Structures are given as C-alpha cells and as structure tokens.
Amino acid sequence: MAAKRFFNDAESDQDQPNEKRKRPRPSFASVIGEVVLVNSMQSLFSSLEPLLRRVVSEEVDHCLRRCSLRPMTRSPSMRIQALEPSSVQLVFPKKLSLPIFTASKILDEDNNPIQIQIVDKTNNTNGAQMLPIATDLPNPIKVEIVVLDGDFPTGGRDDWTTEEFENNILRERTGKRPLLTGDVNVTVRDGLTTIGEIEFTDNSSWIRSRKFRLGARVAPGTSACQGSRIREAITDAFVVKDHRGELYKKHHPPTLEDEVWRLEKIGKEGAFHKKLASENIHTVQDFLKLFVVDRSKLRKILGVGMSEKMWEVTVKHARTCVLGNKMFIFRGAHFALFLNPICQVLKAIVNGQVFPTRELSNINRTYIENLVREAYANWNSLEVVDAGLNETALLTQGDHVVEQYPNHHVEAMSRSAFDQNGHLGLAAADHHSKSVNVGYLVPSNSGSSNFECSNAISETREGSCDVGEEAETFSLLDTDDEDHDDGDRSSAQVVYESRKADSHKKRFRKKILSQEDEDDEIQSLSKQQGEGNSILYKKHHPPMLEDEVWRLEKTGKDGAFHKKLASENINTVQDFLKLFVVDRSKLRRILGVGMSEKMWERAMVNGQVFPIRDLSNINRTEIENLVREAYANWNSWKWSTQS
DNA sequence: ACTTCGCATCAGGTCACGAA
DNA sequence: TTCGTGACCTGATGCGAAGT
Predict the structure, then answer these.
(1) Run of H or E including A147
(2) What are the residues whose beta carbons fall under 8 Å from the beta carbon of A298, sequence distance 6 or more?
(3) Between the CA of A554 and the C1' of C5, what is the distance in angstroms?
(4) Assigned fold of A81-244
(5) What DSSP string runs through A31-65?
(6) Distance between CA A504 and CA A309 in Å, rounded?
(7) Which residues does A618 contact at the CB level (< 8 Å), separation at least 6?
(8) Which GO terms fall under molecular function for this chain's record (predicted)?
(9) β pairing state of A335-339 and A345-350
(10) pLDDT value of position A194
(11) What percent of chain A has pLDDT over 70?
C-alpha cells in the first residue's frame, strides 16, 4: 500500500502555486522513518536518492513549463492592461450541481449545461442587475474554462489580477490526463454561451484546500477587448470526488426499493449493512417496516456500534422516504387490516365494522398489534392495491413533523391534518417543551388527497400538551412498553440537544441510555456481531507468540502504544513477553504514563499466558543474569522444541 | 489502452473509559 | 470536569489484477 499523500509546507507556499501540480512525494519525515527502521546509513542514501532525483526532475519540469507557458498565455498588451479597473466581466450565472464526481458531466444547479455570460457591472451596486452585453465588444469572444485552486482568491477577496488568476490555475498531476476534459474552449456570442460537456478526470483531494473552482477567462492570445480587461469568472469552491463515490451516494430522499445502505450511516458492505442483511433487511422498506413493527429489535440488530446520534441520523433519513400509494391488505375470517408500505395501519375492519385511525383506540390493542405482527410476518402474501394516496405521504412517527419533512409541501399538509383533527398543531410542538409521538397515517375519510394524523401518545416534560383523551389512545407504531420510554427519551433528547454544548453531554447520554434498559442485551449481542465484523482488529484470547503485539488488550493497532513498542523492536507478543520477563520496568517505561496502571494490568492478564516457574530455590541473581544474556543474544542461540 | 473490481489502508468522527 | 487514549465505524482512494 502506498503511503497517503502528504501535504507539506511547500504546497502551501502561495508564491509557488505550481507546487500544487506536483505529484505528491514521500515527505522527508517518512523517508527518515524508513531509515530508522532499517537502521543503516546505506539505506538512508538509497532512500533519499530517488526522492532527490524526483524532486530535481519535477522542479526542472516546472521551470520549463512556466517558461514555455507565459509568453503564450498573455499578450504584452494584456499584461499592461491587467491591473486596470474593469467593469466588464465573465460570470457563471448559476451555481454548479453538487456533488461533482470525476468522469461525470458538470452541470448547473438545474442540471442544465453550464452557461457563461459577459456582463457589465457599471452602475451595478448589488450584482443583481447585471445584464449580458453584446455591444462595444468584438463578437464572438473565445473563452477558456480552467480549473482553479479552491483557496483562490485568498482572503475572501472578490477581485484579482490576471496574473493572480493565472497563477492559481491547476494542471493535472504528473502522469495523469488533463484535469478537465471536454469543451474547455468555447465561443461567446451575444454575451452568452453554453458549455457542452466538460468533466474532471481527477478528484480534488490532492491539493491542500481539497477543493477546486471552475474559472473562465478570455482565451490567451485573444486581443479583442478594445483596451479593457474582461475579468475572469469563477465558481464557488467545490469538492470533486472520485467517481466511485457516486456508486455509494446516498439517496435524498431514499425510495422504498433502495438498498438499505443508501441510508445515512449505513455503509455498503459495512458492519451495519451486514448486520441488517443477516436479518433479511435489505431495502429501505424492510428497514422501515421493522422500525414500525418492532423498533427495539431493529435497534438491537444494529447494536451499540451504532451510536444514538448515528441512529437518529439514519432514522431521520429513512423517514424522508417517499411511501408511494400502495396499500397492503391483510384479510382474515372476521377482519381486514389496511396497511401502508411500511406496515402502518391505515384502517381496520373488524366484524364488518370500519375503524378509521381515529377510532382504532377503541379496539383491543393487543388484538390489533398481533394482527400487525402477523401481517408483517406474512408480508409477501398480502393483497396489494393502489390506494390513491398522495405520493408525498410520509412517515410521521415519533418525531416532530417539522424535523422530518424538509419538504414544505408535506409540512403544510401535515399541519393542516393536525388542525383538521383538532389535535396538536405544529406551533404547539415546541421543541423545548414537548415531543409528540404521532400515530399513523390514514387517508382522509372524505376520500380527498389529504390525509390525517392522529396523536397517539404525547409526552410533556416541561410544558403542557393539550391532547385531551387522545393521549390515552394507543399507537400501533409504538407497540411495546419501551416505546413509552421512547416518549420520555424523545423529550430527554430534546433537553439533551439543548445542552449539547455543555460538558454534561456524555454523562447525560449515559443516563438516557440506562433508561432504555437495553444495555446488557444490546451490548452482548453487539459484541458477538461486532467480533465478526472487526476481525481485522480483534484481540486474541489467548494470544499466540507470533501474534503482532497489538493483538494484546489496550494496545491498538498503529496506536500510540503500538508505535512505542515498535520503536523498541517489540513487534510480537513473544517480544513483549520476553522483555516482560527480563525487564518488566523497562517495558513499563516504554509504554509510558499514557498507559494507566489499570490498562497495564489488563494487558498483562491478556499477555501472561505462560506461567513463570518459581525460582526462589535457585540463586536468583545468577539465573537473572543468564536470562538477560540469553535475551541479548536471542537470535544466536540454537533452540530446541520442548516435547 | 482503458475500465472495472477487490483489497488494503487511511482520515476523520463518535463514543466510552480511566486518570488527573 | 477535562483530557488522553483506544475502539470501531464510514467514506475515500491508491494500487494492482483481471477483463474488455
């Protein structure tokens, strides 16, 4: 594996912008590090030689490039005029569509090809009134699209000289294709042009700012500006990601059919993805169904490896899923249960009597719960119909409606739905005073495209929540006792969020978690599951002599202790134990005060697999000296294997 | 020659724990 | 309460092998 790119000081040198174009090279420190490892001056020279050769080669290359470019890129007349005030400028009228990936077409925020305008900002104070101009300028004008460093212009300035602009143009890395390919040279007619297809060939991670800008300038050599400079255009800075990132892109909003790793915090083939897959949760729909039917089970599947914060992010993202308009009907001898695609009850018919959501509380709660679970278990056999629901019908369970729906349309609908029912309005859903657990969605009784929300459980911690008897109704979405705690937790989390900045954060979270009564079960489950997923870092019990030393408890791979030990040539468990036996205090010193006594003891418990025989009957000092000698000449001894 | 894919590694974030 | 550290996660990406 090659070392990661280094960002040395030379790259930050503003006076040498071309430094950024260099192929990243090993830092001096990394070279020295290698040398220390091999511990020989010969290695030092052999390590430095290729580095020096490359540095010299690249510097010569850059000098040649700069010398060869400058005369071509700026005409003498342009150079003189560069610093003159200019009211005419190129602009990108629209922002770019983000994120941008390599090998993908660069488009504007409306997903249309990028445009470039020439505008005159004379008499324009706020930039909003700039208009394309076509007069007083030659027509057409050739324009070149270039890539700029994201840090340009420095200091947030909105003006620059032609030379500054030119010095911040980025070129491809050594051995790579041109950084920008496609229609990089365009012709502006009547003050406006559209760029066809352009795309990046390389990501932006290799420059210090990690961001690019697109720039547009009048093509070098064009002497057609009638004595005035046309100022260059630049876009906002943006990150260009490797095209592979596009494959892993999260969907906003996700669809029911999306694979579950499209949700935030669930990486493709990552630990959570595997855990979910092992429970047959493959799609966002699967995820949401289980969330509705048995939230605690879903939480346990993910385990403590998924923190509360991550869980919230994932759930929040999942909740933005568009549910579509399908309805699933679970029929029995005396009942029919109408469910939405994520197992929320829309309506129930029991013994011929129709129960819209508002009246579901009148039915035996356990009875309905069991039906829902049964429906969930037999999901594939349910009858599917087109319910004609509004396409934007979304989840509204267990959270503030506002938070769940960035879509204002849906928010408005939810608001009206609350009002219709005479239930809690959004205004009352004050973040600081209460949280609202919304029950389930139903199509409006009138059959209109609106839908209603029923408050199932509403918890108030500090303020009042006027939901009347509705608060006593039940929610099929909050089926177990834990979910009453969820009400508490939601409120608690609101309070917690408001205290985010203060130092009670961790203790407070711990307290909340303890209320959830899930630690032991989840932890043991998560540990079991986690072991399979973190096998790369797994500690060995017991460790083998040949094991790398970081297999011992409290010694993280590539962590501080690992490095300290490695620097003393203690690479294996055997090395560790040898020094432990021969000179325990030295070993302790190597690890330093960073390893607490408790950690030290734990590492010892894990490391001491071989009992040291009692030497009290033998001359201790003599034996110790022999052992030290043996240790010092370890590799020169002939060893026999004990039978 | 170029693309695709899998592997390995790294960076950065979050969290828990323990010591001071 | 603060700080240092390890653990473990996702996401990014360099590299080489295999495929086209």
Answers:
(1) strand A141-149
(2) A281, A287, A290, A291
(3) 9
(4) Immunoglobulin-like (2.60.40)
(5) HHHHHHHHT-HHHHHHHHHHHHHHHHHHHHHHHHH
(6) 16
(7) none
(8) calmodulin binding; DNA-binding transcription factor activity; sequence-specific DNA binding
(9) antiparallel
(10) 92
(11) 41
Protein residue nearest nucleotide C1, by CA to C1': A503
Band of pLDDT at residue A522, cut at 50, 70 and 90: very low
Q: Which residue is nearest to nucleotide C9 (CA to C1')?
A: A305
For the stretch A123-151, pLDDT in tens is 554 443 445 554 566 678 899 999 888 87
Tokens of A603: 């590492």
CB A518 within 8 A of CB A299: yes
Whole-angstrom distance, CA of residue A451 vs CA of residue A438: 13
Q: Which of A24-33, A168-177, A199-208, A305-314 has the lowest mean pLDDT?
A: A24-33
CA–C1' gap, A311 and C5, in angstroms: 25
**Residue type for position A32:** I
Distance A109 CA to C19 C1' (A): 37
Separation of alpha carbons A544 and A550, rounded Å: 12
Q: What is the 3-state secondary structure (H, E, C) of A160-200?
A: CCHHHHHHCECCCCCCCCCCEEECCEEEEECCEEECCCEEE
Buried b (16+ CB within 10 A) or exposed e, A243-277: eeeeeeeeeebbebebbbbbbbbbeeeebbbebbe
Sorting pLDDT into bands at 50, 70 and 90, what band is A249? low
Query: In angstroms, how far is CA A80 from the centroid of its own chain?
Result: 48
**Which residues of chain A (595-624) touch nucleic strand C at CB < 7 A?**
none
**Secondary structure letter of residue A538 according to DSSP:** P
Closest by Cα among A629, A342, A643, A315 to A477: A342
- Residue numbers in A 461-520, CB below 7 Å of strand C: 503-504, 506-507
Strand B–CB A507 distance below 7 A: no
Q: Which residue type is seen at A544? A: M
Q: Using the 8-state DSSP alphabet, how is residue A131 labeled?
A: E
Confidence of residue A81 (pLDDT cuts 50, 70, 90): very low
Owner of token pair 């001359």: A619
Whole-angstrom distance between the N-terminal and C-terminal Cα of chain A? Answer: 41
Would you say A298 and A290 are in contact if contact means Cβ atoms under 8 Å apart? yes
Regarding pTM above 0.70, the answer is no
Residues of chain A (249-308) having a beta carbon less than 7 angstroms from strand C: 250, 261, 264-268, 270-273, 305
d(CA A486, CA A306): 17
Residue A590 has pLDDT above 60, yes or no: yes
The pLDDT confidence band at residue A20, using thresholds 50, 70 and 90, is very low
